[in-house]
Amino acid sequence: MSGSTITPWVIGNWKMNPMQADASALLQDFKQLLNNQNIAEDSCHIGVAPVAIALSAVRDELKQANRKILTVAQDLSRKAGTGAYTGEISAELLKDSAIEFVLVGHSERREIFGDHPQIINEKVKNALNAGLGVIYCVGESLEQRESGQAEHVVLQQICDIAAVVQPAQWKSIVVAYEPIWAIGTGKTASPADAQAMHAKIREGLSQITPEGQQMAILYGGSVKPENAVELAACPDINGALVGGASLNAESFYQIAQAFANTK
Ligand code: PGA
Fold this sequence. Notes:
Structural class: alpha/beta
Number of helices: 10
Bound molecules: 2-phosphoglycolic acid
CATH class: Alpha Beta
Largest sheet: 8 strands, parallel, barrel
Shape: globular
CATH superfamily: Aldolase class I
Mean pLDDT: 96
Number of domains: 1
Order of helices and strands: EHEHEHEHHEHHEHEHEH
Low-confidence stretches: none
Distance between the termini: 7 Å
């Protein structure tokens, strides 16, 4: 038991994977595992974030599951509404396709695609104003951790969005702490280090909003069934954003179960 009253979240971030046939098989297998032994909705929110072109198909396949599974977009446009923005997908278009949540600020977007704080703020604002929930990702690089700046960097990332989030919108935000050095590397932050950062994030959030005490803060970075139980036991780790291990139905299921069991 983690002792927390926050319902955990386990979100699979498929990134630029997999091909259609594999995605379909993955969802079938996952739904079958839930059919064999369900994970109660009130014990864990579950979601998957497929590539944009698969959002509608995944949303439809997930309707056949025996519990609610959220379809989450991996990104959205910094431009709102509709208009002449080739290649872009706005918050309103996601909402129109019955998508309820979107990732913003993932380190791969920040580092590879130039999503700097101003762009991120535009995305957060558009998403919230369109009524989407936001999974807001923060995290430090190895260099920043080794030079003792991890906490400062992460808290700054939290403060960055405070400029665009209205007081009533904080309850639509889930934070994901993903140390960059732990993403896709097989290295996980130790539960103690992760918990320490999560507690700092909660403290920072609580200074900004009264919602801070009740906001879910997910850990991400090489979460697997082998480390999920220990991470789930930490009081301020309220779920996981899972990359690689979410591409395997059994692993993803076991991670969801580990967090559900803390309730
Ligand atoms: P990983 O990715 O689980 O493969 O480390 C996590 C993420 O980037 O969300």
